[in-house]
Structure formats: structure tokens, C-alpha cells
Amino acid sequence: MSERLVGIFVCARAGEPMEARESAQALAGVGLEGDRYAAEIGTFSTYPGKGRALTLIEAEALESLEGERGVALAPHESRRNLVLRGVRLDDLLGVRFQIGEVVLIGRRSAPPCEHLEKLTRPGVLQALVGRGGLRADIEVGGLLRVGDGLRLLGPVELESDSSSCD
């Protein structure tokens, strides 16, 4: 299976560096254990909208930034919880999918914002336009492990949600 989880990152408090993990417990309807958004203390925790439990980004998008835009961004600097390889995250919008034991629903795109650029470096916002990732809700919790594969489970109907940033 080529679609797989290649990075897991959490951050205990807003603005702190993301910490790499080999595994993480995903809590249904909440987020990743040990992450600021699961504790409802992330920078954008009080913003309305679904898809705040988990953020994902494509490894390929991060790898292409330096060559295409002259901006290097390590996976942990993306501020996304999960880094996936071999899948277009736009294709998971409105889709129920499984990574390891965990069932997720792709709720909306995760465009980059000025907050991310403030925490990293100039140029990140423009470099990530159109490839900032995906926001997802955790429908069925469980353990996520680096190396877990991805399986599509089918489409879901999404409600309208105009929320944007992290």
C-alpha cells in the first residue's frame, strides 16, 4: 500500500514547537492525546466549525516547497498533526477514511495563514497556498502509528462551513 502515515506531531501548548511521535492515541470527537487542540487550548480552539480535531498535510507538498518556492519547511514546522505520503488530501474532502485503527472524516481544507508564517519564516504562507492540507474529525478513535496505511471507506455529506485558518 503506497498511501501511508509518515509523521505524527503534537504540541501541548499554543505556539510551542511540534513534537514528533512514533504513535499517538486519537480520541474520537476530541483530537490527539497530548495535543493543544484536544485540550481545547490551541490558538484557534474557540473558532467555530468542524474539522478542528486533526490536521493533515501531504509529504510531497512539503518536499516540493524548496525547489518550487525557495522555502524549506520541515514536517513539524507545518504545524499539522499528520503527514501522509501517496495520497492527495483534496481527494479526502467529504470522505470517511481509515488510518490504522482510526476512522476520520475529511471536513475541509486547511489553508495556511499568517499565524503559521509568524511561527516559521517569511514566504511560508504563499508557498503553501493550495496545498496547506486537510482538517478532519475523528469518528472512531484508536492508536495511530507511523507507517500505518490509509483506506477509503466512502463519501459523507458535509455541512457548509466557512471557517478558515487553524
Keywords:
mainly beta; three-stranded antiparallel β-sheet; globular
Could you give the topology of this structure?
Blueprint (H helix, E strand, L loop, with lengths): L3 E7 L8 E3 L1 E5 L3 E2 L21 E5 H11 L12 E4 L9 E5 L2 E8 L4 H6 L4 H5 L5 E7 L1 E4 L4 E6 L11
Parallel strand pairs: 5-6
Antiparallel strand pairs: 1-2, 1-6, 3-4, 3-10, 5-9, 7-8, 7-11, 8-9
How does this structure look, described?
By secondary structure, the chain is mainly beta. Helix content is 13%, strand content 34%. The protein contains 3 helices and 11 strands; from the N terminus they run E-E-E-E-E-H-E-E-E-H-H-E-E-E. The strands form 2 sheets. Strands 2-1-6-5-9-8-7-11 form an 8-stranded mixed beta sheet. A 3-stranded antiparallel beta sheet has the order 4-3-10, with no helix packed on it. A hairpin with a 3-residue loop joins strand 3 and strand 4.
What does this entry show, briefly?
The chain is mainly beta.
